[in-house]
Write a structure and sequence with these properties.
There is one protein chain. This protein is α+β, with helices and mostly antiparallel strands. It has one domain. The chain has two helices and four strands; from the N terminus they run ββαββα. It has helices spanning about 25-45, 70-85, and strands spanning about 1-5, 10-15, 45-55, 60-65. It has a four-stranded antiparallel beta sheet with strand order 2-1-3-4, with helices on one face. Helix 1 (about 25-45) crosses helix 2 (about 70-85). It starts with a strand and ends with a helix. Mean pLDDT is about 70; it is low at about 1-20.
Length: about 90
C-alpha cells in the first residue's frame, strides 16, 4: 500500500504487512482507512489516496481517493494522545 497526496509528494509504504495473512474485506477496509487517516493527520493533507495492488487470479490495481475532514483528524489526535497516556 502506498499513500500520496494529490501533488504526488510524500509516500508511505507497508508492503510486508499483508504477506501471508488473509483478512475479511471489512477488516482490511478499516485498517486501510486508519492508515490513511494517520497519514492525513501527520501531514495535514486532506485529499489523500492509496494505490492498492490486489492479487487474486489477475492483478488488480485500485486507486482509492478520499478526503479526511478536520474533525476526523482531531478525533485521531485524541486517540493518539489517549494511547500515549496509557503507555506512560
Amino acid at each position: 500500500m502506498d499513500a500520496a497526496n494529490k501533488s504526488g509528494s510524500g509516500a508511505g509504504s507497508d508492503h510486508g504487512l499483508w504477506k501471508g495473512r488473509v483478512l475479511k474485506r471489512v477488516d482490511v477496509f478499516e485498517l486501510r482507512f486508519a492508515q490513511i487517516q494517520c497519514y492525513s493527520w501527520i501531514t495535514g493533507v486532506s485529499d489523500v489516496a492509496q494505490v492498492v495492488f490486489v492479487r487474486k487470479r489477475l492483478v488488480e490495481i485500485q486507486y482509492l481517493r478520499t478526503t479526511i475532514t478536520d474533525k476526523q483528524r482531531h478525533e485521531f489526535a485524541q486517540l493518539v494522545e489517549s494511547t500515549i497516556r496509557q503507555i506512560e
